Each structure stands twice: as structure tokens, then as C-alpha cells.
Amino acid sequence: MPREHDVHLQRIVDAARGGKSQLCVLVGESSTGKTRACWEAIQGLAADDWRLWHPFDPTRAEAALAGLAAVGPKTVVWLNEAQHYLAAPQVGEPIAAALRTILTDTDRAPILVVGTLWPVHWDQLTSLPAKPEHDPHTQSRHLLTGRQVHVPDAFTEQDLIAVRSAAETDERLAQALAGAADRRITQFLAGVPALLDRYRHAGPGARAVLDAAIDARRLGCGMELPAAFLEEAAADYLPPSVFHSLDDDWFEHAVAYTGRPVHGNAALLQRTRRVPADNLDDRCFRLADYMEQHGRRTRSHLCPPVSFWDAALRHLPRRTDVSAMASAASARWRLRHAGLLTERARQLPWSAPAIGADVQPPEYDWLDEDASWPTEHLACRALADLAFTAAEASEYDQAAALALQAGECCQPDALAEIALRHEEAGLTVEASDLAHHAAASGAPACLSQLAMMREEAALFDQAEHYARAAAEYGLTSTLTDLAVRREAAGHKEHAEDLWEAAAAYGHPEALANIARFQHEGQDIDGAARTAREALDRGDAAYPHRIKPLWVWLWPHGIEPDGTPTFPPYEDHLW
Whole-structure pTM over 0.85, yes or no? Predict the structure, then answer.
């Protein structure tokens, strides 16, 4: 079903078929149809004896760097998720340079290079540096600029006319039209129905494990969730009678069910492991991307049970994860667990213990700063120390290279700190790149810090960009801080937009502020609905600078139809 971006892409493919080498990168969010569009566009080249080359072995970047020199005419170079090639540490720029070479070599024409990128990766690779002498993506920027085609998140109304017509004879499209939110047809078609069906029909043990995994991710935990954490956390998601009726090996049955793939390799929980391990306790699992998004929407009003916080104390090995859980517990008034998690985070060393290590909560037998760690983690800590030393000597390129190596294992906090030091030194492009790497490795708080640093530098659009990036990892407070600043500066509409964004990410104070704006704008019915929604979600506390919602619902109470009756607007009530 051709859309506007397909038309643009087809023109580029036709130009390559005509004999001129071309490059095109489709830029769009996850599951918007970028890869599918590329695949459909090149099908006609097969009849003209074109070949397709997808470099991926032993790694994508290494394969591309080794093989680009041998690429000949009538070759499609397939760079799906092009950040794995162009943003790869140390080899990204040589790959970009090699691509520029083959695209300008008339003896090898025609060559067609097609790739895909998320917008955040496009921004990293094409942004101008603050200081020209420190430009980590010169080759990539020259390669990519002007060669992108935007793929929208949702179908337009014009697109939907064709979808509705095709849906009359295609049951899959009919289901997508009925079930897709906000006209996001491709996201629905990309395996969502099967994943959701398995989630909804999961047995009690598997459903409890999945809900625990969803809650961990939406509250700020890293992507890798230890098996021991999931098993203990799941206990209180079930009624006691149901939990005690489960078989002794219920957890193994649960992970077998959640790990079973649908539509290719998509699974609710995918097993991952950094190093080979024979012990079952060393296993880690990663939640499917869409299930994480689905859970952020459907479970945003729910607070995890006691077993979740206890399991976080016992089994989460990363300091960043424990800190995130402490913040989440505090925000939900689970103050005892917040205190315990905060204290444990303080005592965890920079180098986290290996997954599966027995880490006890403070009431028992905590490991301290001087505890012995496995040799490979000592090496990672040494890399982090060397990175800090290089940064103090203003050798920022070396500091970044060392921190990236350390961050890939168990030192994301060190990588985050090096990113912020680059920002302080005016190396803004490098700081952005390193911060995104740190966030993906388990230290997303640096995105919040980067947002506020850009805010202080009066780079307001960039500040909001990084605040939204932090919110993707569950850190929504930066959005609300910026909203307060915008309102104080007199930009009320802009502030309201930021509160709306914070609400979409589940910030507990966002709905209260939206209701306040509605009330101040004389939208009494809208404010009442929003206020009631906030209270139904269990939002327990609001900052001193807003008027508490319960005052709006008291003393006049609730009308018979459920609509709150607002009290007189009198200052003494506040």
C-alpha cells in the first residue's frame, strides 16, 4: 500500500536502476514500516540481475568495513538500523568514508545504499558540533545530509482511505483499523496482535512475571532483568491461594511460555546473557519493546506490590537500577522501601556484581565498597578510572573511547559522567552521543542532566528533546521541571504542552497540573474529569505550588452522576 515516503523512495531506486549510484535513509520511529518500505522498493531490481548485500558477520560494523571495498555494480547495500554501522565506536567514520567513496566511483556504478534510522540516531549523526575541531561524525554528516526520507508514525487521513478500501478484503487490515491507536497501523501489524494475545492468555505465573517485568521497565530499570528478580517479584502479583497452588517449577514454565516466539523471533520475554553461564540464576530476560510501551499505558496507574520492592533490594545488581527503584518507591509513598533502596544504592560500588550474584539487602549482609568482584569487572572499573584520568587531562577522545568500553560491560554510570564532562567542555555533539550510549546501557539519568545543562545554556528546544528522551526511560521529572520554568517565564501554552507530555509518560503530578490549567481557563467540566482521573489513579502528593485536587472535590462532594462539584474559589481554602 504505497504512501508518500514510498513514492520518494521509488524515485531514488529508479535513479539507481538508470545507472547512477544512490543512497537513501528512511528516518522514523520504531515499527513504522521503514524496513518494509525499503524491501518493497528494491524488489523490481531482482529482474535486472541486482544482488543484495547485508553485512552482519562477525558484527555489522566489522563486516561493512571489511567488505565495502569489494562492492561492485548492481549491488544493494542493506544497512538496516544504520546506527550499528555509522555510530559504531572507532569504525563508524571509516565506514561512512568508504560509503562516500563507492557512491562517487563511476567505475562501480550503479550502487544503491538503503538504510533506516530512528530520529534520535539521525540527530546524533547529523548535528553540527559546538566546536568544529571536535567533530565525531564529520563523514557521517556529509554522507547523510539531504538523503533522508521521513516515515511518519501514523497514517494520514488520505492513507486511511486506501486502508479502508483494502480492509474490505483483508482481515488483517480490518483488525488493524479496529485496534490500532492513533492511526498507527504499521505498529499494530508488526506482531502486536500475537504478542498481546499471548499476554492476555498467559497463565497466572507467566502473567505475574510479565507484569513484574513491565513494572520494572516503566519505573526505570535497565533492559536486562535478572531471573531471580523476576521470580521473587512475581509472588505478590498473585493471590496467595493461587501462588501456593503453583507447581514447584512454575517459574520455568512461565519463562518457557513468555519466551516462545511469535511471528518470527518476537517474544514477550527474550532471554539474553552477556557471558556464557551454566547457572540458571545467571539468566537475564528482556521485555519486548511493544509490551513495554503497552505496559506504560495500561499499568501507569498501578503500584507494584511488596514482593517487587523486596526483589529489587535482593536481586538488582546495578546501582543505576536500584537508584531508579528508590525514586519510584518514594514517588509512590513506599517510604520504607525507598529508604532501604537508597541506602543500598549508596553502598553498591561503581562496578556492579555479575548477574546472579547474591546481593543482600541492608538488614542482612550487604557487600561493601571494598568487596571483591570478578576479575572482568575489576578490569571494567580500571577502564572507567582511566577514562576519568584522561578527562581530567582534557584528552576527551581517549576518555570517550575508554568509557564506551567500560560502559558496554558494567560501568554505565562512568560513561554517563564522561558524557557530562564532554558537555561541560563544550563538546556538545560528543556529549549527546555518549549520553545516549549511557542511557541504553543502564544510566538514563544523564539525559535528564544533559537536558538541564542545555536549558541553562538557553538551548530550550534541545533541553526539551533530552527531557523527552529521559522520559522514555521512566525519568519524567525533567519534563515537569521544564514545564514549571516555562510557566514562570509566562509561556503558559508551552508549559501545558510539557505537562501533557509528562502525563503521557505517567508522571504522578501531571494530571493535577493539567486540571489546574483547565480550571484557570474556565473549562470546569474538563478540569473535573481530569481531577477525578488523577484521584482514581491514586496520585498521592502534589507540589506546594499547585492547589490540591481533593479541595476541588470537597466539601461539596460528588454529584449523583459522578461529576465532582467544585467549591468556591477562595484563597483561604488553599
Answer: no
